[in-house]
Amino acid sequence: MMNENINIEEIENILRSNSVPDDGELDDILNRALCYENDKAESPCLSMQDVSKLLNCQNEEQHQRILEAAFKVKKKVFGDRIVLFAPLYISSYCSNNCLYCGFRRENKHAKRIKLSTEEAVEQALILEKKGFKRVLLVTGEDPSRTPVSYINDVVKSIYDNTGIRIIHLNAPPMSVNYLRRIRDTGVGVFQSFQETYHPETYKIMHPSGIKASYNFRLETMDRALTSGFKDVGIGVLLGLYNYKFEVLALMQHSYYLLKKFGTYPHTVSVPRLRPASGAIINDTPHIVSDIEFERIVAVYRLALPVTGIVITTRESSSFRDKLLTCGISQMSAGSKTDPGGYAKDDDNLDTKQFSIHDKRSLEEILQSIVESDQIPSFCTTCYRVGRIGSKFKNIAQSGRIKNFCALNAILTLKEYLINHNGSDSSDCLEKIIERRIERVEPDKVKEDLIKKMKALEDGEKDLYY
């Protein structure tokens, strides 16, 4: 099967070669990944063959070297910050019949919910009260019940009636005209996952509905970027097919976007198949072990140095803590995967898209990030000041984005502390802010940062660089 985005034959030829690097080859690949800033604007730092060799490394020593290199690249690009967000589900109605999903059309046990704009605002206010400034709107794929007009109304209402500063959207693939209308509301990133890039597996997993069209979904990012979105998010659902094929295909898709639009995908999410009530498939067809998952995260970071690598609450709390030093730069926290879930205490799987594993509160996750010697960030600045698309890529590739990240992480964490004074995490967060301020250079910037922090204490909000 041929597509402008994906060349299946090339991927399968690379997989057949099954090339395993010796230590010298691994040195060369990792050194080129660490020198990503020397690459030309439209040339990725690693080739598809390099990616395959990293996935094929056999021994523990090589595995650890890959993880360590990935963490170095993450710190080189983004510094010590980990950005936090929460998903906000607005509808569980869906016209598709994906075999692995609790929202699938033929799930007779699912309790369907569609939030009104007022209810969506209520959910956003709950998240804001917890401390979030960034939300990811998620909707089932049923355009008849959740048309673009509805999505836009929800976005506008949240912006107008809450302190949420940026909204990203995970929604069905749609036309350029519809995407343009959504972009005009101020949505930051448009996100849509291919789920699996393997055509035969895709056909089996998506037997009916709009999502049954492999090519229509694959070309979603082209339409989104053509419509005016500068930032898009992609991902595969690990476990549906051979992970090595999926990683190579996602990489090929990413390199295609770089060549055609001048930027990598802004985010790559790394979800692993989880049980879902009413799903046809609950046993993972292609198991991805924790070690393989670590490797995938690290390879994404090495091959896509300036992309946000996102980990969700599908993973366990202990494993997510471990992944903090494997190259991730964003993570969800305190997530609910059912519409209206943040106003409920129950854990009814019949309303959820899938079950979550890490059920810790935002406070607990803040503390775990600090314990990894990194700093939590609620920053939303880049989307609002125009550091997006190829401009973001160029700033990040030059090594300058981490300077903005460091300052904005301190400011947003300080604002969080002011609003949550006396919380269980207050002491450790105050200490990490103090330590990070000491690292700020030059003195003129440090003095300005301290002034901004004093202004926050005096009642100002939303200060940034």
Written overview of the protein:
This protein has 19 helices and nine strands. The chain has helices spanning 8-17, 23-34, 48-56, 60-78, 117-130, 148-161, 176-183, 199-205, 214-218, 220-227, 243-261, 290-303, 317-323, 362-371, 381-385, 389-397, 401-419, 426-439, 443-457; strands at residues 81-91, 134-139, 166-170, 189-191, 231-235, 267-269, 308-311, 330-332, 375-377. Strands 1-2-3-4-5-6-7-8 form an eight-stranded parallel barrel, surrounded by four helices. Strand 1 (81-91), helix 5 (117-130) and strand 2 form a beta-alpha-beta unit. The longest helix has 19 residues, at 60-78. It starts with 7 loop residues before the first helix and ends in an 8-residue tail after the last helix. The mean pLDDT is 94.
Query: What's the number of helices?
Result: 19
CATH class of the largest domain: Alpha Beta
The topology string of helices and strands comes to HHHHEHEHEHEHHHEHEHEHEHEHHHHH
Number of domains: 2
Helix content range of the residues, please? 40-55%
Q: Give the radius of gyration.
A: 21 Å
Let me know the CATH homologous superfamily of the largest domain. Aldolase class I
Instruction: Trace the largest sheet across and list its strands.
Output: 1-2-3-4-5-6-7-8
Our estimate of the beta-strand percent is 5-15%
CATH architecture of the largest domain: Alpha-Beta Barrel
At the fold tier of CATH, the topology name of the largest domain is TIM Barrel
Helix and strand composition category: alpha/beta
Mean pLDDT: 94
- Tell me the number of strands: 9
- Overall, the morphology is globular
Low-confidence stretches: none
| Main β-sheet description | 8 strands, parallel, barrel
Termini gap: 47 Å
